[in-house]
Specification:
The protein is an alpha/beta fold. The chain has two domains: 173 residues, Cytidine Deaminase, domain 2, CATH 3.40.140.10; 117 residues. The protein is built from ten helices and eight strands. It has an eight-stranded mixed sheet with strand order 7-6-5-4-2-3-1-8. Strand 4, helix 3 and strand 5 form a beta-alpha-beta unit. It comes from Folsomia candida (Springtail). Component of the eukaryotic translation initiation factor 3 (eIF-3) complex. One of its GO terms (molecular function) is metallopeptidase activity. Belongs to the eIF-3 subunit H family. It is found in: Cytoplasm.
Length: 336
């Protein structure tokens, strides 16, 4: 276990926030930038320690990939990295993993099953999501997530086919309750803070890109991603409606079969003949398996995250538009 003092909150999380060193952030960004052309979703492990009410992340290491692009991470590789960190007197306790993902599309079945495996083996594990697209636009985006206790119960069997509508309803679980976001605070050394202050003084006097209004392409990508996910949600809803119609039709056939059998037994009883033997209706009318509810929940989560990003992006874009309009009016008044 990678903790010294455990505290609990409503999400059964042993810490209140994540404190990550600036060096670890730079290593995550560097790895994702270098592998962006070879790997769709670069991943790596994070090392740290739980101290009081915070999780301190001090180091990271990249997961290796084969030539075919398949991840080849095993326990032996992770144990070797932790052993090397221990030899150089660094924090060597494995406390989670990180992943690079664009436009918030990380909410997939592979992702939740991987995080479930981490939290099942490492109680205080966490996943860091890095968005390279928003970072390239000047907004460093790092999010820390953990699965909620209800989501852990949902994925306890590790089989998507067992996630039925009745099971999800019994847990009172929805797409917005799958994950718990943990606040992140980036910590730098005093020397790094001094360097940042020096760079701040060296910035150019005239900056021309702060009011860049060319945001149409970014917003278009966000909207395109959200529309694709909405269409997939619609397809999952169609599967659910089709299953409900099949179940309803089967119930009607079952009721009709029982009614005909009762009429026949009544006729046989009138003639003095013995009643028909009892039959196992479950063998005649086999239950129709419902579609898994994990996929539509994850798609709904992706739509929700995309809408939040669009809302934040539009707020920033509108602020720039209003500010630029005011500046334009001021320039016109000055020229007149």
């Amino acid at each position: 276990m990678a903790h010294r003092h455990i505290r609990r909150n409503e999400f059964n999380c042993p810490f209140d926030y994540v404190q990550i060193d600036g060096l670890a952030v730079m290593k995550i960004i560097k790895h994702c930038y270098e592998e962006r052309t070879n790997i769709d979703t670069p991943r790596g492990g994070i090392l740290g320690l739980v101290i009081e009410n915070r999780l301190e992340i001090t180091n990271t290491f990249a997961f290796p990939f084969t030539k075919a692009g398949e991840e080849s991470v095993d326990e032996e590789y992770t144990a070797t990295m932790m052993m090397h960190m221990k030899k150089i007197n660094q924090d060597y306790l494995h406390v989670g993993w990180y992943q690079a993902c664009e436009l918030g599309a990380f909410v997939t079945s592979e992702f939740v099953l991987a995080q479930h495996g981490y939290q099942d083996s490492i109680e205080e594990s966490i996943v860091i999501i890095y968005d390279p697209v928003r970072t390239a636009k000047g907004f460093l985006t790092l999010k820390a997530y953990r699965l909620t206790p209800a989501a852990l119960k949902l994925l306890a069997d590790g089989n998507e086919n067992t996630i039925t509508p009745e099971f999800v309803k019994s847990l009172h679980l929805s797409y917005d309750k799958l994950f718990h976001e943990v606040p992140i605070m980036i910590r730098n050394s005093p020397l790094a803070n001094a360097l940042c202050c020096q760079l701040l003084e060296m910035k150019p006097e005239r900056a021309t890109q702060f009011l860049d209004l060319g945001t149409g392409s970014v917003l278009q990508n966000h909207m395109k991603f959200m529309l694709e996910k909405v269409d997939e949600v619609h397809q999952e809803s169609y599967k659910m409606n089709k299953w409900q119609m099949q179940v309803s039709k089967q119930q009607q056939e079952k009721a009709k079969y029982i009614h005909q059998k009762n009429l026949e037994n009544a006729a046989r009883q009138t003639k003095g003949d013995p009643a028909l033997p009892e039959e196992d209706l479950s063998k005649i009318f086999r239950p129709i398996l419902p579609p898994t509810r994990l996929t539509p929940m994850l798609l709904s989560g992706q739509v929700d995250l995309a809408s939040q990003q669009i809302n934040a992006f539009c707020s920033q874009a509108l602020a720039k538009l209003f500010l630029s309009e005011s500046l334009a009016q001021t320039n016109c008044e000055t020229s007149n």
